[in-house]
Amino acid sequence: MKRLIEESQQYLMNTYSRFPVVFRKGRGCVLYAEDGKEYLDFVAGIAVNVLGHCHPRVVVALQKQAQRLIHVSNLYHIEPQIRLAKLLVQNSFADRVFFCNSGAEANEAAIKLARKYAKEHLGENRYEIITAYNSFHGRTLAALTATAQEKFHKGFEPLVPGFKYIPYNDIEALEKAITPKTCAVLLEPIQGEGGVRIPDKDYLKNVREICTSSGILLILDEVQTGMGRTGKLFAYEHFGIEPDIITLAKGLGGGVPIGAVLATEKVSASFTPGTHASTFGGNPLVTQTALATMETILEDNILLNECRRLGNYFINKLNKLKEAFPDIVVDVRGMGLMIGVELSRPCAQIVKACFERGILINCTAENVLRFTPPLIVTEQEIDRVVETLEDILGRLS
Predict the structure, then answer these.
(1) What is the pLDDT of residue 1?
(2) Which of 38, 52, 136, 236 has the fewest C-beta atoms lying within 10 Å of its C-beta?
(3) Is 181 part of the annotated catalytic residue set?
(4) Is the pTM of this model over 0.85?
(5) How many Å apart are CA 120 and CA 109, to the nearest integer?
(6) Is 64 in the active site?
(7) Catalytic residue among 136, 163, 271, 314
C-alpha cells in the first residue's frame, strides 16, 4: 500500500488531501484496505453509494450491460436511457430529462437551459441567476461562479457574469435581489457543503411563490439530496412544492458517474437539437446501472421508509452526545440520512481520529461533521459510530 500511495503522490495532480489508505474492495457499508484493515463507511463516496458498495443488483446490471453494449452515442436512441428517463418522469414533477456525467455538468446544463428559456420567454436581458451564500454547485466555471463561497473562487477570476448572491433561508433578501435582469433562482433544498443547513419549513414554499409571481424559474440542485438521501426520492417533496428544474447526480448511478437535468415540458422545450449535448451522457452502461439503483430505491418504499426511521434514530443518538458535550457539540441537524453535527471547533481532528479507528466520516464548512451513510445502514453500524464519537469527544472534553 505504501508504494501505491507514493506513486499516487508522484503521478496524480495534487488536487486532493487524501487519507493514507488504498481500498481494494467494498461490501455494503464496509470498505477493505490493501493492508486488510476494515473501515465502516459513513461517507459513501460523498453521498454516492446509496445502496452501499457493490450492491448485487447494481453489480449484475453493470456486468450484464457491459457484455451487451457499453457506449454508442446520443445520435441514436438508447433503450436503458429511455427506461430511466421514463422512471424519473413518472416519479417526479418533470416531463423531460437530459443526461450528462456529473453534478457540475447537470448544473451547467440547468444554467444554460434557464438562460435560453428566459431569452425566449422573458426578454433578451433576462440572464441573471440568484444563488445563496455557502452553496455548492460544482467546479466547472459557471457552476463555480454559482457557488457563493469566495474560497472556491480564488485563482479562477474573472468569473462568469450574471450571478447574484443572497443569504440562504432569507426570503426578504430574495425579494430585494430580483430585478428585471433575473431569470432564475438556484438553490439546494438542503445545503450540503455549506454545513448541512436545512431551511425553515416555509422558506422554499415562499421562494416558489415569489418565482411564480415574478415569472422566473426555480432550479433546485438535488445533486446531493436526491435519490432517497433525505427519506423521500427528492428533497423538494418534503416542502410541498414543485420546481421548474432539478439537477441530479451522486446517488443516481449507485456508484457510476451520471448526472441528469429534469424539467417541465415548457422549460425543456428551449433545448433543441444543437443547443446542448454530452458525448457520454446517458450511455447504455451508466443508465442501466442507474435504472437498477432507482428501481431498488423505489421498491415498495422500504428503503425510503427505513431512511427516515434510521435518520431519526441517528439524530436522536447524536442529540444525546450534544447533551453530554455541550461545550463541543453546538447543533445536530439533518433529514433522512443526510446529517450534520456542528462543533464549536474545527472538526478535522475528529475525522482523523475516526479514520484511525476504522470509521470514515466527513468534515464540511470546517466545523461540521457530515454523515451520509448508505441507505442500507443498520442500527448497529450507527451505534458503533456514535459510541466512537462519544469516546473521542470524551477525550477532547
Answers:
(1) 84
(2) 38
(3) no
(4) yes
(5) 16
(6) no
(7) 136
